[in-house]
Design brief:
Length: 340
């Protein structure tokens, strides 16, 4: 979860002291990585790429092409499980990133520790980040302030360091831990690493904050993986806004797991009574509407409910193909109508 954001966090940290080339957007497939590599400025000291996959073998090929010195495994979730078939196959695909590494360091979210075997542990230097006491970068504590920021303490080599993150998503903290570890391993000092974390801003569609009059929008319109949606909803529930809404589209590439994952999401929404949900898409039509849940088969139908939102905090979460950024444009149009 959060490949693009992790790439941006690492770049933000390293950029405080080094010349960094950051791959564009989420150009993470074979063609995208090749385009980014072709545009690499050879005078840079660090290049940060993102690898993605839709089918078995893709990450191995990207790794053999780029030959990374350092790699990060942010997590293993249900994204693409419809094409891989199981969590174990997903893990195998993601961990194939070591195939192009000649030694080097693999940073792993400790939640993935169970998928690492002796072959992987013997091929690269594995370092972990997370909340466990055996991690190389440990999240000691974290808290959200009333300005929709997180402050947190990360422990590296037994020393606690304080950081501030300009975003209300706590899963960005986990991604920050990898960036912190890489920064320290590359001999940046605390001030540099802290400055890099503080300077991080999510890119458009990846959790960027957008103001539409009295409405504040969390623009998360690029990705709708199951774990990503669940985390975004849980974070929204914890934010202290008086009025909160979540406009959520359908999940992709979960063939064979739809019934289980949509039901889990619906149950979470039903129990999260301080958020008004608008679920958009045919996959939600089998569920009943409740006091805090509206079901809309299409974006056009959803606009009837969205038009009623005049203030508050709104999460918009969907995959890029659904073009849910249209809701932001629609809310801006409605704001202008009300102003006349």
């Amino acid at each position: 979860m959060g490949k693009t954001s992790t790439k941006e966090l690492i770049s933000s940290v390293l950029r405080t002291r080094k010349k960094v080339y950051t791959a564009y957007g989420n150009y993470n497939n074979e063609l995208g990585v090749a385009i980014c590599a072709a545009n690499l400025n050879m005078r840079t000291s660090c290049a940060v790429f993102e690898f993605g996959t839709n089918s078995p073998g893709e990450i191995e090929q990207l790794s053999l092409y780029i030959k990374p010195h350092i790699a990060v495994l942010t997590g293993i979730g249900h994204a693409h499980i419809g094409r891989m078939g199981s969590m174990e196959k997903l893990a195998e695909e993601k961990l194939s990133i070591i195939k192009g590494m000649n030694g080097g360091t693999l940073w792993v979210n400790e939640s993935c520790r169970m998928y690492l075997d002796e072959k992987i542990l013997g091929a690269v230097d594995v370092k972990y980040f997370g909340t466990g006491m055996n991690a190389d970068v440990i999240l000691a504590d974290a808290g959200r302030n009333n300005r929709e920021q997180f402050y947190f303490t990360a422990v590296y080599k037994g020393i606690p360091y304080c950081f501030m993150l300009n975003h209300p998503y706590d899963h960005f903290i986990a991604n920050s831990l990898a960036a912190i570890g890489i920064g320290f391993e590359m001999e940046l000092d605390y001030q540099d690493v802290m400055t890099g974390i503080l300077a991080f801003k999510p890119v458009t569609g990846r959790g960027a904050m957008v103001n539409v009059g009295k409405i504040k929008v969390i623009d998360d319109t690029y990705n709708a993986g199951f774990e990503s949606i669940m985390s975004a909803v849980k974070n929204l529930a914890e934010i202290g806004a008086a009025k909160k809404y979540a406009i959520i589209g359908e999940m992709g590439e979960i063939e064979g797991f739809e019934e289980m994952l949509y039901l889990k999401l619906y149950k979470l929404a039903k129990s999260t009574e301080n958020i008004n949900f608008i679920f958009v898409g045919q996959n939600y039509c089998k569920f009943a509407e409740t006091a805090n849940i509206t079901i809309a088969p299409t974006k056009e139908k959803a606009n009837e409910t969205v038009a009623l939102i005049e203030e508050g905090l709104v999460l918009i979460k969907a995959s890029r193909a659904r073009k849910f950024e249209d809701f932001i444009s629609f809310m801006e149009q409605e704001r202008k109508k009300r102003a006349v």
